[in-house]
Amino acid sequence: MTVALAGKDIGPQIEKALPGSVLESAPGYVMLKPEFLVQAATFLKNDPAMAFDYLNFVTAVDYYDYFEAVYQVTSMTHNHTLMFKTRCYNRVDPVIPSIINVWQGADFQEREVYDLLGVYFEGHPNMKRIFLWEGFEGHPLRKDYL
Amino acid sequence: MALHTEPFILNIGPVHPSTHGVFRIRATLDGEVIVDIEPVFGYLHRGVEKLAEQRTYTGIIPLTDRMDYITSMSNNLAYVLAVEKLAKVKVPERAEYIRVIMAEMQRICNHLVAAGAFINDCGAFFTPFLYMFREREKLMDLFEMVSGQRLTYNYMRVGGVSQDLPAEFLPALRKFLKEMPAHIAEYERLINDNEIFLARSRMIGILPKELAINCGISGPVARASGVKWDLRKADPYGIYDRFEFDIPTGTVGDANDRYTVRIAEMKQSLRIIEQAVEKIPAGPVISDVPKVLHPPVGEAYGHLEGPKGELGFYLVSDGGIAPYRFHVRPPSLINLTALRQMLIGWKIQDAITIFGSIDITMGEVDR
Known about the structure:
The structure holds two protein chains of two kinds. Chain A is α/β, with parallel strands linked by helices. Chain A has a single domain (3-122), classed as NADH:ubiquinone oxidoreductase Nqo5 subunit (Beta Polymerase, domain 2). Chain A is built from three helices and eight strands, in the order βαββαββββαβ. The termini of chain A are far apart. In chain B, strands 1-2-3 form a three-stranded antiparallel sheet. Chain B is an alpha+beta fold. In chain B, a hairpin with a 2-residue loop joins strand 4 and strand 5 (160-161). The mean pLDDT of chain B is 90. The longest helix of chain B has 29 residues, at 93-121. Chain A binds chain B through residues 1-2, 28, 53-57, 59, 61-62, 70, 72, 76, 79, 83, 103-109, 112, 116, 129-133, 140-141, and chain B through 41-42, 45, 47, 49-50, 211, 213-217, 227, 229, 234-236, 241, 299, 301, 303, 310, 312, 314, 316, 324-325, 327, 329, 333-334, 336-338, 366-367.
């Protein structure tokens, strides 16, 4: 049975490895600072006790005040799983670092988030719309898109 | 003196029999050899995630049918699993068994289509495809008995299934279980050692294990590359921990392995269905769930081992009657992540085979 690791246990460990990177360690997830996202993801993947080698999914949610990027990762070695998040408060040009260099599986999913929610993933080599055509106005999954 | 050649751009698709839907591969070629590709999606994008934000939790079930229309039952199940996690709903015992039977029947159904279409791509024009459709037809008859539909079943409900099995279902299923092993043996006899098929599929489109894991690839494609990972074993949902079955894996991760893993998985699915039919108890098929659900504020990610890989739903509830956010983790889309690495260096004809061996449904890729 896959063990869902509690954010409140893992958050302090990430904080210890990367001081200043964790904003909140909730029961269900760890909230990371966007500028530490790639470093924290690399830590989660390479640390032998974590060994999160598999990225389940990437998505984002529009909460009006901020965009929240959600990541779920699994370790096939230890059979445990963790959800971590990061937030972006800029609504005009939201930017979040891309984790494609840590898990290549984020490739199409980050493009999907950009296409439908307009969150730009910095560092992604091919950040453009995936489903809608170039020139489409707006991002349909935003809550203010009608 | 070497002949000077220019790279040539070829569009494979969007409407092409080998793209299994409306998918475009923009390939840059040097002669016949692929130097670069760019997959182009979106021809079947219907905005399912946005549509779902305006529907009740039960009203979304028919939308999930229309994502991967080859595996509607599994889509239904993955979605209701996520809602049950979000709203903390219990499922009666009989419904759990019915779900397992349906999910495994759906897996056989999908693998028949996948293997048939793949052999078609290898050049065996439609004859093996029709052999496989012959058995799929029987499965569709069974699905029609329980749900009234042949493709978009809308059968699973939050807290169970929509109706009990009709009296004629289990005898018909037992008959199918008795006949199917001989049919699988027939496929193996006809196809497995065919010289042309082997020449077209063996050592073609090798996907290394590390790349498969890094790209988030799941399901038979990952298992063919030697990733022994199956959510039915790794994270048993429902009652999967009560059944005995093996996880078939491949050794090299070529197109042939992906085909053989699917054939082997069909046999395992038959094993699971046999055990479920033996043990299925009597009782109610749906628990007492209100017609309009109001899950508590929160989020949930429910996933299962779909026929194509890890199919998951991430739901955010604000306490209302519709999800605040509805996100699908589509195995068909994510399994294409490594497509570029798998195709570069191969000839166009091999690209068709490699793409066919991944087994995707465009309805789920684009949603």
